[in-house]
Amino acid sequence: MEDLKEKIANSIRRKIMVLSLGGACMAFLCILCVFMFSIFSINETLSDWLPQLKDKLSEEIAEHTSESKMQLYENHVVADASTLELNFKKPMDDCDLLAGTLSLYVNNPERYISQNVSTDNVSLDNKFFYTEYSNGVNLNSPAVKKDVTAVNNMKDLLRIVASQYEKLPLCFYVISKSGYCLSINSNVLSYGGKQFSFLSLEQGKTNFDSRSLPAYTIHDNSNVKVRHGLITDVFYNNGEPVVSYSTPFFDRKGFAGVVAFDISLTDLVRFSYRADKDHEWKFFFMDKSGKIKMSSFEEGIFSVSADLSLKQIASVDIKELVSNVNNDRSGISRIRMDGTSYYVAFSPVPSLDGYLADVFFEDDIKEALKSSSEQLFGLLTEKNEQIFKIIGRYRIMSGVFLTLILLISLTIAYRIVKKYTSPIERISQEIKSLATGDFEKRICVNSGDEIEDLAENINNMVVEIKKKIDSISKVTSEKAQMEATMSVAKTIQSNMLPKKFDISNSHDNFDLFAMNLPAKSVSGDFYDLFMVDDDRIIVTIADVSGKGIPAALFMVTSMTILKNLSHMMLKDNNDLANVVTQTNLQLCDNNKEGMFVTLFTAVINLKTREMTYVSGGHNPPLLLTKKTSAYEYLKVPRIFPMLGVSDLIEYEQNTISLDEGDCLFLYTDGVTEAINVNEMLFGETRLLKVMNDEMKTAKPEKVVKGVYNRILEFAGEAEQFDDITMLCFRFK
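^ Sigma-B regulation protein RsbU (Phosphoserine phosphatase), sequence as received from the core. Prediction below:
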């Protein structure tokens, strides 16, 4: 019991409480002393300072507040212009999506289930579809029927897209080259209650031809058919400034029509505007030439009715405004005309190729500044009176008494701190020696409280740290040895892959290039190329299951067996299928780990340009021929499984003839299965598009490196998770 009482009396909690109370009292007294001194100083200072402050503020508040207001207004218009840009880009993107989908429908009708074709005006989920045929169109024409079928398949998607714009009035529609037109909500009203769509104002007329609309003619009249969306100039329909955006879609013959939408520019601006303006404001939209395209002004130089460009106005302020606009950046300009001064804040809207501008009247700004100044001075006067009242209450306090209490508190606190911190200082000194690496030293403290327990725990911790350091040293050594081994393995594997691509001494009628990029230190992919004789070359690409060392070992085995058997068995014949079958038998033998390899190998006769190939479960290669003038996936008549799975498989070979300029592109699944940060696949479709758009005439080295660059651009910051191997062969 006595020991317990002594432990409690000497507990560190009690010591800390005493120390904390003493420190708190000392701090309080110090603050109180400083406060008393401050009271007298503030009393004298405020008597002289407040009148001077009012005079100074009255001079500077207008300047600084005006600058703040200008920056605020500029920030407002920049934010509104950015919102306007986003609100217009979204339906543009949706329009591009609809056009791309419709191109798939018209080019591959057999892949899609045809919907029930309706040529009547119908309503789906409160969205009204209108059907129009241009004057003179033959409704029984195969071209018209084809367009009607394809466009009707778009109704559900068109309805879903249009449903996103319940609060923003716009009209989506499709116009085919054959004269068929399908629209959704073409009679939609603007915020002003007016019909504004080109379709709503023209449809129903006997001579109406939807192909005469600006959204269609902007593409149809183009000498060079663009494949991206275009924006029309601003038109005034029924008193509304309307702009159209259209994206072309294509069938196998070329341009087949457009997907478009109409939108009121006034509605778009009002929908994008912030609602927290502090006073009345007006706005207008102008193009880069200074022409007013839309305005809330009914008259004056900033109105549409003025029908002039700001460049035509001789005012110096207007010329400065136009000069700032031509620099393609946001800003604010002061305009003085006809006895009125106002500020014009502007910001570019790239999608609409123009500028959004807000107009703030200077009188309104001055009135706001005056009101702010009066409020501030009133607040200062009120607070000043309160401060003097507080000073009066505490002026009678005695500084001598506070000084005495402070000295006593400091003396007591000093002695308490010195007594209770001595053991801690001793521990601190001992820990410093431990930091030098002397883990054999022990800390000795006999305070009878938690500090003594702390010292003992530190001693135990030092013992454990020494054990951990010894263990980490051992693991670090083993890891370094493993990394050295992996580096040697990577070098050996890399050296096994051919680096010389000009391997024929008898023929120079071809180009060849290959690349292997492991996802880890060593790869499971490989490629090979070698001459069987003076006229025949073998090209191979393969992908071993798994990754790392096991895949690399199986890769070496597969590559060695295939190459040796090719040299042995193809001396007097072209039986490549038998070579692959025998390779499979040897890989199946003792394959207890169940590993396998996909493979595509081909024997190419450089003299006759005949290619014999065998595919073992590998990705179909891409082939560019003079006949098709485009890359296509090579269609293998019969699909065989990968090697190493079953020793009962007898592989078959196929033979095709190549011509001058024909190109063969081999790759592993690391190409098509590359992913980006959104976990989207690069895919066979994107690969085929890249090859046909960029690689038709490129040499093999440019083809391989170009595809890899496109993969890097697609993947972005996503990590490569699979080996990437490519090989390209081309006859000159």
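The chain has a mean pLDDT of 80.
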